Amino acid sequence: MVSKILVPTDGSKAALRSLRYAIGLAEQLKAEIILLSVIDKSSLIPQTVPTSSNIIEPIEDFLKNAAQEYLNEGEKLCKKSGIPVKTVIRIGRPVDEIIKEAEKFSADLIVIGSRGRSAIKAVVLGSVTFGVINKETKIPVLVVRK
């Protein structure tokens, strides 16, 4: 039985589509959603970025704020549908953190979006979805394509 669904989000259209799909499943199954945003540690270099108000802030703070915004949007969608939701931000390699959090929360299913890149583009550019599917885990993965 599926009672906990982990949904990784990066704020993309594919992630939003997978969240909406997961919400539909959670409604039918009376399941809880764990919404996860992972800040890729490879993007954390000691730099600053200008923000919309022309204030310089460390890139890590900027990325954490962006991740929190994605989670807040997702949390609103879940609550609107009456779905219990937990939100989590992690820093690390996205594939590893997704699997780690799914195991930590004893998720019964991972619902993840795919942008539908070709296999060659996925290999060259890297693909979190591809990595999660091929990682050693017993947790089923449902890929929501566009």
Overview of the molecule:
The protein has helices at 13-29, 59-80, 94-104, 119-125, 128-134; strands at residues 4-8, 32-40, 48-50, 56-58, 85-92, 109-114, 141-145. The protein has 146 residues and is α/β, with parallel strands linked by helices. The chain has a single domain (4-145), classed as Rossmann fold (3-Layer(aba) Sandwich), CATH 3.40.50. A hairpin with a 5-residue loop joins β3 and β4. α3 (94-104) crosses α5. The protein starts with a strand and ends with a strand. The mean pLDDT is 87.
- Overall strand count: 7
Radius of gyration: 15 Å
Strand content: 25-35%
Report low-confidence residues grouped into runs of 5 or more: none
Question: How many helices does DSSP assign?
Answer: 5
Q: Tell me roughly what share of residues is in helical segments.
A: 40-55%
Widest β-sheet, arrangement of strands: 5-2-1-6-7
- Global structural class: alpha/beta
- CATH fold label: Rossmann fold
What do we call the CATH homologous superfamily?
A: HUPs
Count of discrete structural domains: 1
> What composes the largest sheet?
5 strands, parallel
Written as H for each helix and E for each strand, in order along the chain, the element string is EHEEEHEHEHHE
Shape: globular
CATH architecture: 3-Layer(aba) Sandwich
Give short descriptive properties of this protein.
about 150 residues; alpha/beta; Rossmann fold; 5-stranded parallel β-sheet; 5 helices; 7 strands; about 45% helix
